[in-house]
Amino acid sequence: MPMWINADISNISQNSTIILANNRQVLAFSRTWGRQNDNCSLPNAVSWQQYLRQTWQALDPNTTKRLISNKLGRALIQRSMQKLGQLKVDSQLLNEVVKNNDYCSAHLIDYAQLSQSNINISKAFAAWMEDYQQRKQQNNLLDINDLPALISQHSDKLDKPYIYGFKTLTPTQELLLGKIGYQTLDFTATTADNDKLTFANTDDEVLQATLWAKGLHEQQADRQIAVVCPNLNANHQQIKSIFAQVFDNELVETGQKSYNISLGLALTDYPLIRHLLAVLQLCGQLQKNRISTETFNSVITSPYISGAQNERAPRCLLVNRVLSWAQTHFSLAKLQKHLEATKQASALIETIATQKTPAKQSLEQWLNLFDDYLEAFGFAGSRSLSSTEFQLFNKYQLERYELNQLAQLDEKISESAALFELQSWLAQVIFQAQSGKNQIQVLGSLEAEGLVFDDAWVLGMSADFLPNTLNMPRFIPSDIAQNHQIPHSNFALIETDSINTLNNLNSLAQKVIFSYAKTHFASEQQSSPMLKFDTDAIKFEHQFTHHKLQSLTNERAVALVDKQIKSGVAVLKNQMACEFKGFAMRLKIQSFDEPHIGLSRMEQGSIVHSALQYLYEQISTKEALLALNDADLEALIEQKIAQALHYYPSSGFKKNEQQRVAKIIHNFMQIDRQREDFLVLTTEEKIDADIGGLQFEVKLDRLDEMGNGDRIIFDYKTGNSSKNDWCGAIIKEPQLPIYAINKAAQGVAFIQLNADKISIKGLAKNQDSLPKQRPHKECLQWDEQIELWHKLLQTASVDFQAGCAAVAPNKGACDYCDFDSLCRVNK
């Protein structure tokens, strides 16, 4: 690592033990030792926790007690909390409980003190921890907090270690090291030449620091450079983005970059692990025959499973098919008939779906089964992994085996519980890909303390950082916290800690730049009172300047070659509403409704259409309709609705829909009985339409022949409808006009079918052919209206074929538009 410690290590021998405050200081010590002692073996340099584990194992190598990891300890604490009635234990609560338990151990706070307090959450916390201690004792377990007391019993057998980098020792550390004896490697403070810079905003601040680091690195590639960010965790994405932009290395592996941002993410935040968990979720869903649309689509398009490359296109089409169902879940039977083009995926699904697994088994058995699932899917084995992906998968396997230790403490559990355990475990594992010999280190303030670089810049020197704020532990009463000197529990401790922090930052290099920004996104900031900054922000000249956008008029695409199209009605409707919207139909972009519970509006409309089709196939005349008494008509309606609903699974939604549709159709029958004599010629008839040379297929809901010989085309509408949609200079709903032109009819009408209102709205050559209509000023006489429709539709067809694509939407054209991502019209 490109850093070292600033201390005199001349008296240290290769047999010495050095305890350092954190793992980064351990690495820095190793590098410092290597520079000063080329041919000598490295002393035993360890962090505090490493020292405890190492010493305990050396003192009692044959012990029957098992030392558990911090993650396993967290899992056991969670079980104790749940056992005692805390049903919901999220990661935030668990983190706070673990932190408070560590405070109790480090500051010698007995749980009995908390139990005797009058604060309920302190009593609950003490009960959780006492149960956790009992659980460890029953299973012959130890955690890291148990080791100082055990080691102190053998303090006379231990050599005195050196310590370095600790601001202050905790009472537990003082007690143990006091018994053993120790020597301090004093940090050699330097008097730095410091600059203090003020910026208008954090983007400017981070950008300037990044450019500064890059410039120094280009001047001298082996310079050790630090960029310290106190709020690295919160500002990680901002810093990562700006560094990638300046260094132009977004796609470069971490180990090959000239900088390293010292902040890992939870394993579950990485795509590979998310895909892995999705595979396991899908396997469980396949066996339960209730498949989540979201999970299935994530897995079937995953690049990490077998056949991802060979079947990429058909799998994407399969996703479109699943999305078109607009369901949150679906059955395997519904999926299987669409798997012909994805043979490998079909085989994977069949293998898992037919596998029999017990309802409950041990966690170890579930983890072994999960391994089998991943192997069956060829996970991470069918493509070359990047360096980061390879490290991620190896880390998963290590953590999976560590989680297996938990299996020895649990009874049999369900598959969903086992998967939850695995996901929860991985969520608390922080991972960062291995870095190379990066000369630029971007790190937090705690990590930077005790280290030395050639050059250093400290960002974010606002009042939010120094001095620290009062921060009481959640489960430890304030009086106990202050008496036991828990950090940030009183102002004296805060002042001391803030001074130590600033001194450490001052000693990062011979010259340190401190900076702060007046604003962070939309929030104003004040500078730290511990440093004096100029009130005026630096006028920063950006390397990247904004150019005025240039407008390019491009309103015509190439002419259409193939005149045979699909969805011709929608094409002409969109072309008349907005030329660009019509042109976009050429791209054949599919849009899908959001998954829904129950029946969608489209499904409800389809059920009404089907029921009426079946009904009028049997009752084709008004005479036949009038011949039915009410009971026979009701029975027939029920029969036809049941026929329309035949393919829908049984549910409360289906039952409710049957009742709703029965009421609508019954009300419509009363209106149809009052019409003039009619003969239903066709229902749901498909015809070939030709509009200006554009050819497509349309389907008529219903065609009647009236007693006077007129033919009337009807279109069922389960939503609202109006003659305004096709009377006037703009045709908003061209379906009926297209029918009328291609079928030589003498009238057209909407049949509005909804729970609120049943009505027939239309236009006919002979007004007696339809129920009495309100006059509409925009509607012409029938022959004139047909001529106008023909002209408007002909123009729209010619424009579409010619490639007219001006972005000039009519009123309402942008409502519910599927092409927002392609269009820049102001809405």
Give structural notes:
The protein is of the alpha/beta class. The chain folds into 5 domains: 4-64 and 149-184, no CATH class; 69-142; 193-261 and 437-524, 3-Layer(aba) Sandwich (Rossmann fold); 268-431; 568-802, Lambda Exonuclease, Chain A (Alpha-Beta Complex), CATH 3.90.320. Helices cover 44% and strands 14% of the residues. The chain is built from 29 helices and 26 strands. The strands form 8 sheets. Strands 8, 9, 10, 17, 19, 20 and 21 form a 7-stranded mixed β-sheet that branches. A hairpin with a 2-residue loop joins strand 22 and strand 23 (694-706). Helix 24 packs across helix 26 (630-644). 33% of the residues are buried. The mean pLDDT is 90.
